[in-house]
Amino acid sequence: MSTDEMDFQPEAPASQAANAEPVALRTDNRIPWMRDDIELYVEHPGGSRVQLPAATVDIGRQGLGITTHTFLHEGTRTMIRLPAIDGSPIDTHGEVRWCRYDDGLHQCGIKFTSAVQLERIVPRDQWTETMLRDDDYQIKGKVVHMFSSALDQHMLTLALRDTAISVDAVDTTGAVLDLIRNGDVDVLAIDLRSENADLAQFHVQIGQLGYGGPIIFIADTDDEVVAAQCIFEEPSAVLKSPIEGPAIANRVTEVLEKWQRLTGGDEALFTKLRRDDAVAGMLDGYHDACKTTADALRAKMVREDREGIVSLLRRIAGTAGTFGYPVLAKQAEAALSKLDKTGTIRNANAEIAQVRSVLRNLKGFANEAA
What pTM does this model have? Predict the structure, then answer.
């Protein structure tokens, strides 16, 4: 069906409604998710939108099941405003794949234009076992484990072996710093019993390299944790040695998931531009400039060049929206605000690290394939 033919009607013909069937098999897993607080908008070919009352039935990364009183033709384009766990709205576009009449309501299947970040919408403890094992639904990343106990190193690797989270185990601060320089660290797990580590100096060094991501403490006693908190402030998690049990994988996954949420996920990485926007052809050049800016930010953090960092963040805040990245603009503004309030680079490490993470991973247009 062409775009010009897309439309909606108050009622479908009885024969069409009774015989309507899904036109494509689902390719993703779904969670039962019954909500009546979504906003469904039908998009007309001319660009106007009409809001229709609707309630959800189930949801997955790739699509949504709804019920509504209005028949929707296959191919009808939609915009759906979904409620996130934190209460913020998530706008996503989609297309009706099928619609059928059942017991006074029309049931419809909508395929999203691009996958949604499901962990922002439905808590992971409500996901099905199949989804938790599905690679498309797994949180991906790398944990760098600075270990002193070979047993803990083995147990952490074992706990994460069935996830999409890899573990790099090293036993010196120098090796950790090398990985940070290469931008190859998503989560840092520090064994507080490492005899060869000066933790106070190490904290300064990772700050100078611009690492502001999650830090997990591994410790024997509460006293070790309290002492480390005087240096590192509040950790993202504490794992008690000896590390064991499936709960370890869940805890590390939660830490990484929260960090990825803070850095914006796909919502931050895909441009909001349309392909026919005037600056759309400049996106590749902008992405290259952003990677260079990420490296420049890190270099200025090493030199503790506060003015240079502020200048770069202002440039990012001023240009990101033009190229369709409003989340990146807000993150740069948040980093500037933190720098202004605290006065020190170290206290703004987490905010600057979020900006650098997005700069390195920006993408172009979301996949528009149905």
Answer: 0.53
Q: What tokens does 288 get?
A: 């290259």
DSSP letters spanning 148-216? S-HHHHHHHHHHTTTSEEEEEEESSHHHHHHHHHTT--SEEEEETT-TT--HHHHHHHHHHTT--S-EE
Reply yes or no: is the peptide bond before residue 214 cis, omega within 30 of 0.
no
Q: How many angstroms separate the CA atoms of 101 and 9, rounded?
A: 13
Q: Is the pLDDT of residue 91 over 80?
A: yes
Distance of CA 161 to the CA centre of its chain: 22
Sign of the torsion angle spanned by Cα atoms 46, 51, 54, 57: positive
What secondary structure does DSSP assign to 174-192, as a single string?
HHHHHHHHTT--SEEEEET
Average pLDDT value over all residues in the chain: 81
User: Whose CA is closest to 241, among 111, 119, 153, 161?
Assistant: 153
In this predicted structure, what is the pLDDT of residue 20? 39
Q: Name which of 61, 57, 154, 142 is nearest 107 in CA terms.
A: 57
Residue type, 176: V
Of 246, 238, 204, 233, the closest CA to residue 221 belongs to: 238
Amino acid at 314: R
pLDDT at res. 28: 66
| Residue 348 DSSP code | G
Whether residue 178 contacts residue 223, with contact meaning beta carbons closer than 8 Å, is answered with no
